[in-house]
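Here comes just one.
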Amino acid sequence: MAPDEPIRVIIRLTADREHIEDAARLLDSIVEPSRANPDCLEFRVFRDAGDPAVFTLYEHWTSFAANRVHAGMDYMAEFVATSDEIFTSEATFVHEINAIA
């Protein structure tokens, strides 16, 4: 993958059972600033239909570098600082994918 090619990222997070709604609010708090980033082509948060504690993020960025810049933004630092209290473990990086057709 060339560093300037668009990239899609899928991330899975599992909330502590006592903090499911806190997790939803925390994830919602990063949607608007993420989408406002001109290098963000798509940013969506999903909740698992069978387990309300499991969330999946689908991100589409103009490049890997753009995704790294996003990861270093203040709103993401706040998310990471708070997420330890809400999620049962670190995010599971599911896939980094690129379209071929």
